[in-house]
């Protein structure tokens, strides 16, 4: 049998239920009697434990906690259990019935927990010994499912679950866990309600073991909800149907649409179990983006790269013909996968997210990052290193655009204080930093960051609170929020690309860097560069302090622009081809123009595969806005205003000039293939 769980030295406050804190009133909260609490204290002492009774109301939470502090100097565990009943059907429920229940259950738990919270926080900061501090909320099946005659009680109990869920999130980084149980147990509350037979099986002794486990320092559970009683324990979670996207293009959402899709909305086939607001939102966005992709709009809000001004190389305007992504944005694309990789649940490694820093990064781009589209990233944890002062988790992420591998990332996540577990110090799987040549740098660029820089990078998708929230960064030991690693790293790459790569993202092959010291918003970065063949070694210093902030860095450049890159010539060519289609349609006379008021598909092939599949939607009238691309395999965009498109179709505008003037935009990887002719012939037959 495994070792018994012990709670040596732990100070626990149990409210209510004839526990160590109990007013001793009746089930309606009337009267006051010290006997209930005293009896439990005697029982504990008789078994060799230590306990003191407290008779204050839970609404005086600070007094309760103070008595624990006076007696034992600390508080480790709070079990919010106090409760009363004032059952009435809703029509007969008085304000007093409502208020009393809420005051004892919800406000009481709030007051007690609030009084304990800062002590628990301090304990975490004050000691290096990991001391689990836990709060247990006692909810009720009535709160979860509702119960006849208990509207006041159900509302308060479910309120406790909401309180507990949020405390679980806020407490996670502080090592404060918060779980909720919905027990069915024999107690002073239930003895008048349940039959004698039922009561026989519902002993508090069958609930307490779950509470003990949830309170134990080995238990990692946080934010859980459990039903327990009669020797049975089960966990509850939310289940959500995939739902139905009702909003259709150009149509208002209507109640009739809700009625018509009711079965689909309520069907739990392929349901999900969102465990957090983020997951809930992600599932919903996934549904929406699937729907949009079906409609021909390629978008995925999580990896939509459209308007990220901070990422543009030299051009901040997404309408510019050379608008492109800074290659280092590839880091952000992979970040969500890193968060999902399970790194916070590596067995034996207790990760405090306030102590997580970007240690090193390697990024290789196989092709320039698309400026819009849906990208899929897959992460795997490849190694765990013990660096003494910290642990390093090495995570590889591959990012795909359709079938094509767009970039590889290797994250070295440095967990401050996570080392010393006797692990290995280095890994054969990591890309290593390289020291620069020992001569003076060949080139130096200095550029100031702004005070708002972190907010700007946050808008670019890196949403770590460490960079924006003073409370969070204080927990990490920083006087103020520090800049994203992506920021210093992004500045340096921009300097290198500008100086040695003609500002062309297609020249960017790979980058490796170590983050050695944080940078603060407003500080200036000095990038020192050494060119050796196609490799540019670099390091970065903070100008104001002279501190090295990025070390051992290098950027590898492609000799020529990456052959798979976007070529302005190809864009132009595709513009001409596109206009040619329009010209031929127009030349064929009004009958054809009329007929193609449906949807025209235009496919471009490359290496025998579909490189692009455009949809020109003329359904809503001549010259309707063209949407594109519609293909999982290529990222191509065509846009033109109604007027510009019609002008092109009618041959009134020189397509080359329209293209150069930005009135017609096409981007993509184009090689003209057989398919084009075939489709044009098909048109001719119409
Ligand atoms: C869950 C979420 C996942 C998401 C992750 C990231 C999300 C991002 O938003 C986070 C960020 O952007 S954070 C901002 C950028 N990063 C930084 O500012 C970190 C700066 N670096 C430091 O402070 C220290 O190097 C520090 C503190 C990292 C190390 O300093 P020390 O503890 O003093 O270490 P030191 O004594 O110098 O060396 C000990 C061993 O560790 C190796 N090492 C040091 N710095 C390293 C680093 N940055 N990366 C990798 N290894 C590093 C040393 O080489 C030494 O190992 P060895 O003995 O084997 O040589």
TrEMBL record:
<comment type="pathway">
    <text>Lipid metabolism; fatty acid beta-oxidation.</text>
</comment>
<dbReference type="InterPro" id="IPR002539">
    <property type="entry name" value="MaoC-like_dom"/>
</dbReference>
<dbReference type="InterPro" id="IPR029069">
    <property type="entry name" value="HotDog_dom_sf"/>
</dbReference>
<keyword id="KW-0443">Lipid metabolism</keyword>
<feature type="domain" description="SCP2">
    <location>
        <begin position="580"/>
        <end position="681"/>
    </location>
</feature>
<dbReference type="Pfam" id="PF02036">
    <property type="entry name" value="SCP2"/>
</dbReference>
<dbReference type="GO" id="GO:0016491">
    <property type="term" value="F:oxidoreductase activity"/>
</dbReference>
<feature type="domain" description="Peroxisomal multifunctional enzyme type 2-like N-terminal">
    <location>
        <begin position="312"/>
        <end position="417"/>
    </location>
</feature>
<dbReference type="InterPro" id="IPR054357">
    <property type="entry name" value="MFE-2_N"/>
</dbReference>
<dbReference type="GO" id="GO:0005777">
    <property type="term" value="C:peroxisome"/>
</dbReference>
<dbReference type="GO" id="GO:0018812">
    <property type="term" value="F:3-hydroxyacyl-CoA dehydratase activity"/>
</dbReference>
<dbReference type="InterPro" id="IPR003033">
    <property type="entry name" value="SCP2_sterol-bd_dom"/>
</dbReference>
<dbReference type="InterPro" id="IPR036291">
    <property type="entry name" value="NAD(P)-bd_dom_sf"/>
</dbReference>
<dbReference type="Pfam" id="PF22622">
    <property type="entry name" value="MFE-2_hydrat-2_N"/>
</dbReference>
<protein>
    <recommendedName>
        <fullName>Peroxisomal multifunctional enzyme type 2</fullName>
    </recommendedName>
</protein>
<feature type="domain" description="MaoC-like">
    <location>
        <begin position="437"/>
        <end position="548"/>
    </location>
</feature>
<dbReference type="InterPro" id="IPR051687">
    <property type="entry name" value="Peroxisomal_Beta-Oxidation"/>
</dbReference>
<dbReference type="Pfam" id="PF00106">
    <property type="entry name" value="adh_short"/>
</dbReference>
<dbReference type="InterPro" id="IPR002347">
    <property type="entry name" value="SDR_fam"/>
</dbReference>
<keyword id="KW-0456">Lyase</keyword>
<keyword id="KW-0560">Oxidoreductase</keyword>
<dbReference type="InterPro" id="IPR036527">
    <property type="entry name" value="SCP2_sterol-bd_dom_sf"/>
</dbReference>
<dbReference type="InterPro" id="IPR020904">
    <property type="entry name" value="Sc_DH/Rdtase_CS"/>
</dbReference>
<dbReference type="Pfam" id="PF01575">
    <property type="entry name" value="MaoC_dehydratas"/>
</dbReference>
<comment type="similarity">
    <text>Belongs to the short-chain dehydrogenases/reductases (SDR) family.</text>
</comment>
<dbReference type="GO" id="GO:0006631">
    <property type="term" value="P:fatty acid metabolic process"/>
</dbReference>
<keyword id="KW-0576">Peroxisome</keyword>
<keyword id="KW-0276">Fatty acid metabolism</keyword>
């Amino acid at each position: 049998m495994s070792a018994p769980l012990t709670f040596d030295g732990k100070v626990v406050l149990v409210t209510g239920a004839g526990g160590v804190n109990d007013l001793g009133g009746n089930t309606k909260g009337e009267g006051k009697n010290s006997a209930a609490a005293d009896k439990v204290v005697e029982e504990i002492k008789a078994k060799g434990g230590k306990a003191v009774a407290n008779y204050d109301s839970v609404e005086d939470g600070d007094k309760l906690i103070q008595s624990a502090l006076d007696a034992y100097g600390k508080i480790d565990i709070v079990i919010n259990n106090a409760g009363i009943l004032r059952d009435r059907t809703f029509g007969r429920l008085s304000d007093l019935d409502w208020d009393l229940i809420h005051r004892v259950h919800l406000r009481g738990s709030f007051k007690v927990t609030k009084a304990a919270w800062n002590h628990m926080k301090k304990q975490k900061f004050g000691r290096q010994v990991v001391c689990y501090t836990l709060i247990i909320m006692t909810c009720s099946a009535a709160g979860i499912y509702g119960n006849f005659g208990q509207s006041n009680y159900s509302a308060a109990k479910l309120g406790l679950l909401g309180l507990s869920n949020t405390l679980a999130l806020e407490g996670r980084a502080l090592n404060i866990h918060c779980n909720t149980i919905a027990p069915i147990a024999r107690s002073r509350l239930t003895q008048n309600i349940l039959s004698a037979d039922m009561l026989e099986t519902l002993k508090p002794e069958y609930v307490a073991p779950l509470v003990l486990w949830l309170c134990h320092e080995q238990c990692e559970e946080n934010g859980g909800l459990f039903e327990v009683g009669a020797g049975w324990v089960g966990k509850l979670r939310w289940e959500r149907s995939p739902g139905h996207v009702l909003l259709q293009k150009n149509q208002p959402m209507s109640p009739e649409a809700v009625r018509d899709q009711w079965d689909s909305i309520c069907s739990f086939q392929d349901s999900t179990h969102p465990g957090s607001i983020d997951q809930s939102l992600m599932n919903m966005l996934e549904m929406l983006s699937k729907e949009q992709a079906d409609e021909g709009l390629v978008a995925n809000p999580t990896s939509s790269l459209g308007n990220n001004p901070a990422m543009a190389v030299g051009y901040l305007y997404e309408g510019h013909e050379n608008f492109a992504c800074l290659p280092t944005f590839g880091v952000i694309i992979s970040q969500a996968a890193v968060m999902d990789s399970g790194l916070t649940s590596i067995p034996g490694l207790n990760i405090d997210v306030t102590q997580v820093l970007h240690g090193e990064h390697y990024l290789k781009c196989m092709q320039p990052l698309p400026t819009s589209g849906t990208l899929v990233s897959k992460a795997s944890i490849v190694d765990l290193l013990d660096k003494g002062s910290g642990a390093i988790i090495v995570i590889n992420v591959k990012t795909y655009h359709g079938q094509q591998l767009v970039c590889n990332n290797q994250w070295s996540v440095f967990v401050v204080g996570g080392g010393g577990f006797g692990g290995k110090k280095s890994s054969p799987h990591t890309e290593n930093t390289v020291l620069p040549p020992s001569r003076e740098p060949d080139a130096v660029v200095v550029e100031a960051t702004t005070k708002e820089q972190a907010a700007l990078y946050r808008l670019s998708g890196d949403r770590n609170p460490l960079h924006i929230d003073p409370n969070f960064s204080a927990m990490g030991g920083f006087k103020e929020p520090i800049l994203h690693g992506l920021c210093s790293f992004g500045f340096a790459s921009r300097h290198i690309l500008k100086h040695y790569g003609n500002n062309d993202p297609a020249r960017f092959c790979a980058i490796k860097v170590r983050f050695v010291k944080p940078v603060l918003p407003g500080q200036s970065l000095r990038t020192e560069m050494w060119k050796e063949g196609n490799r540019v070694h670099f390091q970065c210093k903070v100008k104001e302090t002279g501190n090295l902030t990025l070390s051992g860095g290098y950027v590898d450049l492609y000799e020529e622009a990456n052959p798979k890159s976007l070529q302005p010539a190809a864009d132009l060519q595709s513009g001409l081809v596109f206009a040619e289609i329009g010209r031929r349609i127009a030349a064929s006379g009004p009958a054809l123009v009329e007929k193609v008021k449906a949807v025209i598909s235009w496919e471009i092939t490359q290496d025998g595969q579909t490189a692009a599949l455009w949809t020109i939607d003329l359904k809503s009238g001549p010259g309707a806005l063209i949407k594109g691309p519609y293909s999982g395999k290529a990222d191509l965009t065509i846009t033109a205003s109604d007027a510009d498109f019609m002008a092109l179709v009618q041959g009134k505008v020189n397509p080359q000039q329209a293209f150069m003037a930005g009135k017609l935009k096409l981007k993509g990887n184009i090689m003209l293939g057989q398919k084009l002719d075939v489709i044009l012939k098909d048109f001719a037959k119409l």
